[in-house]
């Protein structure tokens, strides 16, 4: 409702600017109050995320790509859109450590050092698929049916979602996860292991810690412990 109201306000602002109407009748209208304290994205337990990553057959181009993409979202808290927008040159060395450059919403660039596992995944993918010399090419690509090797076509988000569902099913994971689940999984695991909300917000490129809190599922553990007290 708030988004629709904002659209109406912008329309009347434009009409006022063009002298089509004398005033904006929606200017004083307030949207409904809404407070969301918990996100809806399904998350994985750390052992499930590890099982999923370890289950991927990395003797193929598809396997190397899929492990690198999932690892990127888990370890750098990357949005799927930012991950799929990356070019090969967005994986680079700095101070003897591999870094990634994410192209976020609004044209913002966000750079993060790689976790050592992610460094291994990305290096194996780039070298195994011979991408290193194609610096301007897309990092994550579709698989050509005829050769089973990477094509030059960027991987669409819908294809990434289908891949995630397929990989999760193959790993025996029953949770109906999607692309965004890995961002939430990474943030929750980081916080459970002593990370601060403020640093998590910086790593996730959130402008407010309130947004980061939507990804924090630590309260779920408390809820599960409490419901088990109903000893009937």
Task: Summarize the model shown.
Keywords: DNA integration, DNA recombination, DNA-binding. By secondary structure, the protein is mainly alpha-helical.
Q: Work out the helix count.
A: 10
* CATH level-3 fold name of the largest domain: hpI Integrase, Chain A
Q: Provide the domain count.
A: 2
Between the first and last Cα atoms, what is the distance in angstroms?
43 Å
Sheet-strand content, in percent, reads 5-15%
Q: Which structural class do you get from the secondary structure elements?
A: mainly alpha
Q: Describe the biggest sheet?
A: 3 strands, antiparallel
User: What are the segments in which pLDDT stays under 50 over at least 5 consecutive residues?
Assistant: none
Could you tell me the mean pLDDT?
87
Order of helices and strands: HHHHEEEHEEHHHHH
With strands numbered from the N-terminus, the spatial order across the biggest sheet is 1-2-3
Strand tally is 5
């Amino acid at each position: 409702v708030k988004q629709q109201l904002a659209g109406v306000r912008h329309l009347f602002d434009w009409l006022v600017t063009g002298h089509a109407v004398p005033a904006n009748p929606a200017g004083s209208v307030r949207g409904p109050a809404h407070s969301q304290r918990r996100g809806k994205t399904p998350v994985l337990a750390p052992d499930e995320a590890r099982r999923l990553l370890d289950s991927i057959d990395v003797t193929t181009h598809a396997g190397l790509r899929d492990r690198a993409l999932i690892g990127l979202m888990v370890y750098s808290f990357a949005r799927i859109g930012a991950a799929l927008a990356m070019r090969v040159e967005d994986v680079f060395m700095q101070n003897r450590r591999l870094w990634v450059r994410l192209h976020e919403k609004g044209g913002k660039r966000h750079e993060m050092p790689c976790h050592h596992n992610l460094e291994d995944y990305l290096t194996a993918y780039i070298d195994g698929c011979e991408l290193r010399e194609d610096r301007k090419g897309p990092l994550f690509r579709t698989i050509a049916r005829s050769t089973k090797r990477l094509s030059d076509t960027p991987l669409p988000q819908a294809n990434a979602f289908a891949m995630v569902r397929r990989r999760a099913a193959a790993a025996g994971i029953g949770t109906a996860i999607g692309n965004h689940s890995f961002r939430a999984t990474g943030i929750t695991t980081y916080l459970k292991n002593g990370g601060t909300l403020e640093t998590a917000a910086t790593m996730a490129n959130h402008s407010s810690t309130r947004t980061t809190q939507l990804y924090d599922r630590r309260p779920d553990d408390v809820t599960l412990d409490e419901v088990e007290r109903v000893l009937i």
